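Reader question, answered in our methods column.
A reader sent in the components of a multi-part assembly and asked whether the whole thing could be modeled at once rather than chain by chain. We filled in our standard form and ran it. Here is what they sent:
COMPLEX SIZE: two components
ENTRIES:
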Amino acid sequence: MNPLQRYLPLVDDEEAFLEACDRPLPYSVRVNTIKTTVDRATEALDDEGVGYEQTDWNPEILRLTEGKAGTTWPYFHGWLHGQEEVSALPAIALDPQPGETVWDTCAAPGSKSTQLSALMDDEGFVVANDNSLGRLSALRHNAERLGVTNVAVTNKDARNFSLKPFDFDQFDRTLVDAPCSCEGTCRKNPDALEKWTMDHVHSVVGIQKGIIRRAIQATRPGGTVVYSTCTFAPEENEAIVNHALETEDCEVVEFDTPLETSPGITEWEDEEYHPSVEKTHRVYPHQNDTGGFFCAKLRVGGVAESEEGEA
Amino acid sequence: MSDEPSNDGQRFDRLPETAEEREVPGRATREEVLDWWNERFEIPPETFDEYTFWEKGAGKVWVLRGDTANPISVEGLGMTFLRTRQEHWKPTTNAVQRFGREATKNVVELGAEEATTFAAGEDQELDWEGDWGYLIAAHDVAGEREPIGVGLFLYGELRSTVPKGRRENLDALSE
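And here is the structure of the entire assembly that came back:
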């Protein structure tokens, strides 16, 4: 079964949605501001005759229009990292600040972790975790090539992640870019549609619930958790956020996205979700000519230390 | 079994500040690391004021922005930085790309063709009047000098130490 049919009732333009899912994905790169500036990186691409256009929503994301960036000098210097445009969204939503302590629960191969470090000016502490030892080497390789020095790499199951090794007992912000059924990547990996089964959705949902709960528990009162996936399945998106609302002390908060998005849904098949999940964002491929995506921002309950005594 | 503190390959230990504080035999000190970068490349010690240095595995030193619990058992901490516990210490390609811009000594500036040879991991003859040993190979890109990696200069030859996974066959930039 082609899972895309399931989601047609959710999209505004079925034909545009299906057409976009069938087109190959534009190739894009992120400028790594730890090692260079946008000006220098684009000058280096100009010198090598690689065509690009800056996305109108983020000057650090470049869509390549001619040639490839992988075998160029700016790539060799670690000034560029191949990263799908829409996958830059969760790190921007998390909005980490220099000096903060940040956890990336499912970090390999490191595109979002290294983006977090760049957003923090490589100051503070990023714990980049992944439970797959095999994928960890790609994460390490990318972090080193991009010159990231504020990262600790761990190889644990995020669902029962322990902060024992560290000299702090909670994170300021946590990113859960969860393992998912990935139909949103179909423009890059058509396999994702062929291999899709409802059984897989059900099995991955349990993991997603475990990780989002641990993420909220490990994040300080008033801190931020961002949950993202590259699936359209409400079972893996709104339903997971709804589960977090029912089981942990947190709330969904609004955030601006520079991309065109649709609000999270509150009803799916026989399920109803908390009305606040409308504040989450769904990204369909035809909206911005990207992959498909889901992104939610949560505020962890309780009073932040900085707010104590203010009220 | 000896009771002497020893290097544990499974965890990261912060380098001691000075030789007086050294407990693990053979471990480099922070002072020695700073001196080495300063003497070899004239990279000022203040460059690393905000960083700490760690050893995991005999002689492999990592650089971390900030500080953390000591010792710490994690898979990676900051980035690999310097190979010690051998006669000639050797910086990593990634460390030189990250911090080598500050260097004013033992930096060899390569022309466009030489730079592509170097990035491909190939050795080449080189006219160099300076020190033998590990050099920072750099070239001009986008209007400024940029470190490419670590070269070993011996007997008129510059050997590229760019690791296999980082080697690329790149086009020569026009000069």
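What stands out: The first strand of chain A starts at residue 28 and ends at 31. The domain at 3-15+86-307 of chain A is CATH 3.40.50.150 (Rossmann fold).
Send us your own complexes using the same form.
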